[in-house]
Amino acid sequence: MMSLDPQVLEIYKNKPAPPTSFNIADMRRNADLTFNDNEEVISIYKFEDRMISSCLPIRIYYPNEKSNLPVMLYFHGGGFVMHNIQSHDSLCRKLSIECDCIVVSVGYRLAPENKYPACIDDGYIALNWVYENAKSFGWNKNKIILSGDSAGATICASLALKSLYKSGPSIYALVLFYGMFGAVDFDSDSMKKYGNGEYVLPQNMAEWCTTQYVPENADPDDPFLNPGKAKNYSGFPKSLIISGEYDPLRDDSKKFYELLKNSGNETDLVCIEGVMHGFMLYWNRLDKAKDLIKYINNWLSK
Predict the structure, then answer these.
(1) Other Cβ atoms closer than 10 A to 187
(2) Annotated active-site residue in 37, 247, 251, 252
(3) Active site residue 150
(4) Is residue 49 flagged as an active site residue?
């Protein structure tokens, strides 16, 4: 095991002490202050905000004026309780440009106001909308990519299962950054090592977010709630699963990869050395994140 990347250590210089209690309003406020991209970090050919299904906001990013491009639905992270389209604006711009694809960022409903399955329902609405409107927007409905970080990665995996089980839109590929798949419990080795609050995602925060998101009567084996609990992965889209060496959820990503791979699916696992959970939100400051985005482009082009 190597040490934390020097660029991560630079970010950690001003990192506050891990919280001991959690308040939804404070968490959202602090997340907005830290991550909302209020300045244009990276320019892009064009973007537009839309509302679909009456009340579901999306932002569409166009890397250039070409038509018939792949389209990536992006679902932001934030423990199902915080973050939004704006917090991931620069990352979506970067993915659109580097991967030469249209990105549709989805502003799904958050818990605890809207518990499971609200975000999955919103995601499935967005997936069907992208598929049905491909011709009018000029993207390729046969190359729909689902991508997301943390909670967003979980949503993507759940949507892939839902579309597969319900014969929904065909999904070309998944790019999943450090999701919470439920393939292992919170007593995993990586959670014990890195869930103490020093590496972005303390175990008590992960557990708290889960209680905000999951209804009391939910079935823990529901595959759309915990995609790592599914009984059948046959026909799952090709998937790139990404974790960080110091990520408390690292073992969950590895186990989910193994479940997909052992079911005969085209699946790759990449563990980035020296980085923590949530490192993609710092892509502009981390060379390893920038290199990873280039890798993703090559992987999608295979």
Answers:
(1) 10
(2) 247
(3) yes
(4) no
Q: Sort residue 78 into left (φ over 0), alpha (ψ -120 to 50) or beta.
A: left
Q: Beta partners for 147?
A: 74, 175
Strands (E) across 34-178 are located at 46-52, 56-62, 69-75, 102-106, 139-149, 173-177
Kindly report the CA angle at 283 between 268 and 109, in degrees rounded to 5? 80
Kindly report the pTM of this predicted structure.
0.97
Selection from 139, 148, 155 nearest residue 240 by Cα: 148
**Buried b / exposed e across 59-68, counting CB within 10 Å, b at 16+?**
bbbbbeeeee
Torsion of CA 91, 94, 98, 104, to 10 degrees: 70
Q: Which amino acid is at 38?
A: N
279 closest CA partner among 261, 268, 291, 266: 291
Per-residue pLDDT of 184-214, as tens digits, reads: 999 999 999 999 988 989 999 999 999 999 9
Token couple for 107: 């502003």
Residue written as tokens 């008590």?
204
Count of other CB atoms within 10 angstroms of residue 191: 22
- In which element (H, E) is residue 238 found? strand 238-246
Q: How far apart are CA 13 and CA 114, in angstroms?
A: 35
Q: Does residue 2 carry a pLDDT above 70? A: no
- Written as one string, the DSSP assignment of 158-204 is HHHHHHHHTT-S---EEEEES---SSS-TTSHHHHHH-SSSSS--HH
C-alpha distance across the termini of the chain, in Å? 30
In the 8-state DSSP scheme, what is residue 249? Answer: T
Q: Token digits for 69?
A: 């491009």
Structure tokens at 162: 């839902």
CA distance 247 to 202: 10
Q: Which amino acid is at 119?
A: C
Does the active-site annotation cover 43? no
Catalytic residue among 76, 83, 88, 277: 277
Q: Which of 105, 147, 150, 188 is catalytic?
A: 150
